Each structure stands twice: as C-alpha cells, then as structure tokens.
C-alpha cells in the first residue's frame, strides 16, 4: 500500500502543484500552509512510520510546494521528535532482561573413513544498549578432535559494561576468562578499566577504540604462574558493505613485561534469509613468550551459520 502511495506521489503532487499555480497564495511573512493533496500524502507516509517513505514523500512535497517547505520540515521534525521520545521512554522503562540483542554462531564438521575428524565452534554475542549504559557479553568455544585425539580446545567468556558520558565517549570495565592448553595455558583471568571513544558512527561504519590498564593472572601448562599489570587496547570496526554483507574486524592487545598477547578476528557476514546468515572468519592469537614446546602464534579459519536476534 505504501509502495503504491510513493508511486502515485508524482501524479498527485503534480495536480497539487497545478492547483497551487492556478491559485497562488499572497505573499506573507507567515509560512505557507501545505496544500491539501500534498499534506494527505505526507500524513499517509508518516502514518507508515517508514523512514524511507517519509524522506521520499517529503522530498516530492518540497519540490511541489516550495512555499510550504518550512511547514513540511516542521511536520517531519515533529514526527522525528515523537519517535525519539518514544524510543527513550521505552529504554528508560525497560527491565533487566529487555533490550538485549545479538547473534548466535555455530559451525562444525565431521569426516569418517580412514580417519575420524570432528570439529565444532560456537559463539554467542549479546549487547544491551540503554541511554547511559551499554553491556556486552561474549561466549565462545572451539573444539577439534583428529584420529581420536584432541587437537584444539579453546574457551572464552567476557563481559564489558560501558558508561556513556557523551554521545561518543565512554568509560569501560572489562573482565575475561580464557583457556587454551594448546597455546600453553590452562586458565587466564583478565580485568581492565579504561576509556573508550566511538570514532565512527553512521553511514554504515562503526569504529570503537579503547585503552586502559589491566591486570592478568595466567596458569601455564608448565605449572608456572604469572600475575602482572598490563596495558590493554582494543579496536572494534564494522562496515556495512551492502544491505546483505557486513565486514567486521575486532582486535585486542595486552602488553606487559613478561608475556604480551595480541588477538584479532576478521569476519565476513552475508545474509541468507531472514535472521540467518553465513559467516567466514579468520582469527589470529599471538603470545610473545609461550611455554617451552609451544608455538607463539595460533590461527583459526571458520565457516559458520549465524542467527541474529
């Protein structure tokens, strides 16, 4: 219905333009009213609550009735203000379990015959955004078994609250647990507090930068333990290439005197149908001083299905 209204807009607005030309309004300091036919189209678009339709119809309306451009802009601005007020009220009234959104990712493979290989990767990313607070929860697991022997086992759990004291700047607290015996540690606990800045927002681009001090406790597979103060930095980049394709790059670094860690994950996400998408990703984790007998760099390529909610 709304699509037909947009298609009909040039014709109806053209008739309104002809009517306005036949009966020109006298010059006045008061903004000219919106012609009835134009207003009917604008009212119908606003009733749809569809941003794209409202922008399109408002554009035609201004071209058809330039004298009423101020009144048209005022009506659109009133609608936008009402939408923002409704959104803010919904956020302020939300309960603890409301406003959460995110994605669940699952990938894996199974081969049989001369050898039996099993691999699975799973992840859940959750975000809750309110007026002042943003909460992020990440859970991930990778497991691989080849010829009856485990060849990869990685687990991660992270929680990060953000307090936004301006539209772009915020302070954060971050806690994280990891386990990866193939990288040389059974348990690693990290905690950090620092400042963040949203350098890019809008236009299909997102870039969040964070920096602050951290504390890490690591239990290595060679029975040694490490407790150290570190500097933590992170980059979270997102690019909406098209309506169906997204590219993301998430990287973090813990820099310390004994053993520093750098991790990075690049992912390409392509929508399939509805909330379902296919994702290809490549992850790298580097340990500057791994235990004896362990390599310092670990890479993982994944293909997975992603469900967004």
Notes on the structure:
The structure is a single chain. The chain is α+β, with helices and mostly antiparallel strands. The protein has two domains: 91 residues, no CATH class; 209 residues, Beta Barrel (Porin), CATH 2.40.160.40. Helix content is 23%, strand content 53%. It has four helices and twelve strands, in the order H-H-H-H-E-E-E-E-E-E-E-E-E-E-E-E. The chain has a twelve-stranded antiparallel beta barrel with strand order 1-2-3-4-5-6-7-8-9-10-11-12. Helix 1 packs antiparallel against helix 2 and helix 2 packs antiparallel against helix 3. The longest helix is centred in the first third of the chain and has 24 residues. The N terminus is likely disordered.
Provide the structure class: alpha+beta
Q: Strand-and-helix sequence, N→C?
A: HHHHEEEEEEEEEEEE
Q: How many domains in all?
A: 2
Cα(first) to Cα(last) distance is: 28 Å
User: Whole-number average pLDDT?
Assistant: 87
- Count of distinct strands: 12
By CATH reckoning, the class of the largest domain would read Mainly Beta
Helix content: 10-25%
The dominant shape is: elongated
Largest beta-sheet characterization: 12 strands, antiparallel, barrel
Model regions low in confidence, pLDDT < 50 over at least 5 residues = 1-13, 15-22
CATH architectural arrangement of the largest domain: Beta Barrel
Task: Considering the chains and any ligands shown, give keywords for the structure.
alpha+beta; 2 domains; disordered N terminus
Helices and strands, with pairings:
Blueprint: H1 2-22, H2 36-48, H3 51-64, H4 69-92, E1 100-111, E2 117-129, E3 133-146, E4 149-164, E5 169-180, E6 185-202, E7 205-220, E8 225-240, E9 245-255, E10 261-273, E11 276-287, E12 297-308
Antiparallel strand pairs: 1-2, 1-12, 2-3, 3-4, 4-5, 5-6, 6-7, 7-8, 8-9, 9-10, 10-11, 11-12
